[in-house]
Amino acid sequence: MQEKVRQTADRSKTLVIPVETINRELDAKLHLSLRAVQRGWNVILGGRANINHFIPQLPPSLYISKGVRVGNRHILRFMEGFGHVPVALDEESLIRQSDEALLMMLDEETFNRPRLLFAWGQSNAEVWKRFKGYRGTPILEIGNPRMDLLRPELADYFRSEVQSIRDRFGDFVLVSTNFSMVNHFIADHVRFATAGDADAERADSLRDGLIAHKRLIFDAFIAAIPEIARAVAPMTLVIRPHPSENPQSWEAAAAGLPNVTVIHEGPIGPWLMAARALIQNGCTSAVEAGVVGTPALAFRPHVSEQFEVELSNRVSRDCRSLPELVAALKSLPPKGPLPDQQLAYLRTHIASVDGDFSSDRLLDALDAHAGRLAAPPPRGPIAMAVTRLAHFRRYALRDTLKGLRKMGSAKSYRAHKFPGLAEEAVTSRVGRLRQVRPELPTVTVTRLAESIYAISAGASGRGE
């Protein structure tokens, strides 16, 4: 293992690309990896938690963080401490229930640590620039590589999955849920971490208001499942819980309904491509449906002036009641591109709906801002020893203590989102990407540690 890492460190440019949720991110980040190798980069790709543990053994690199909220504070600090240069590819600022709440989740140290900030588009960039602690780090509107995989140029990547889904379910309507605040995989867990200097009273008010709104919508969805199932029959109703949700709530709602299936399997792209329509509320899936050309319905039985997701609503058909939703399901439009007005609006939120791929925009930005990405000066042995001790206490020791306390639900949750990454899963996806885009390079995939792989240019052909 150590020898493999040293070999990688001898190369000139290395990107570290962590994956937190396999179904959401892996395919897109592998596509980004191949395009990076094509431009002369070496890539280390793997599970985010695995990479966090492996930091001290990684070669000097550019680290692509999944975000800049306060929860990323420790990993960004350690990355810099071990000589890496962080940039941030945001995953969570596209769908915002409250700009005010989002800004409360940013702290000045964490937000300004990345050398570049990659925004989904104009809307995301504008809200970041309103952060009181923003110090002028370049904010680049690049979209997100997840959207690359949904565009026509790469849609054939999912061809076999789409056909398999259609073979299993025929015509179906997809319900995509987004209720982890009130139906989390870990019972009673609410994710709403704010910065230390945020107004605690106001943060509590926003959190409680958002929870109350989500609870109303969640309860309405649960109660509506039997009627929705009858409305779509003889088609199947497929319910796809958010990866952070407890699927048992939806399984209970579907009990006894012969045309309802609850399943979270694979990335959402092929499910949207295969579906006749989508039902959602405040979910990224509405945007993804717009990109692939599947009609989206926004079921909004309770409307909040404060907590609505305008983007999801604007690219969907608005259904304010269950009868309106049933009527919309009875008169679905054909699948096809968004109307021009909706598409123009979507472009203000996602820079890479068309034109250059998000992956290329990101790599272009790394080249254009190379001067900002210079490695920090080497740290002395005492400073490095302090960093290693802090890293050990944060990750290795903490996980050992959690294991002794038998934190089963947290472990199950992590495994649910990232069950592990086998080498064959990487090489087979690389081969599929190269079949769809033959200009992508032949690469060598080398295992560095559990669920961590080096991807580099090579003639071995592994993954073809």
Q: What attributes characterize this protein structure?
A:
single chain, alpha/beta, Rossmann fold, 2 domains, eight-stranded mixed sheet, globular
In short:
It is globular, with a radius of gyration of 22 Å. The chain is built from 20 helices and 14 strands. Strands 6-5-4-3-1-2-14-13 form an 8-stranded mixed beta sheet, with helices on both faces.
Please describe what this structure looks like.
- The protein has helices spanning 2-9, 22-38, 48-54, 73-81, 99-104, 108-112, 122-129, 145-148, 159-169, 200-232, 247-254, 268-274, 284-292, 310-314, 322-330, 340-347, 358-368, 381-404, 408-417, 423-436; strands spanning 14-19, 42-47, 62-65, 85-89, 117-119, 139-141, 172-176, 236-240, 260-262, 277-280, 296-299, 317-319, 443-449, 452-457.
- The chain is an alpha/beta fold and 464 residues long.
- The longest helix has 33 residues, at 200-232.
- The protein has 20 helices and 14 strands.
- An eight-stranded mixed beta sheet has the order 6-5-4-3-1-2-14-13, sandwiched between helices.
- Helices cover 46% and strands 14% of the residues.
- The chain has two domains: 2-148 and 354-457, 3-Layer(aba) Sandwich (Rossmann fold); 158-345, Rossmann fold (3-Layer(aba) Sandwich).
- Helix 9 packs across helix 12.
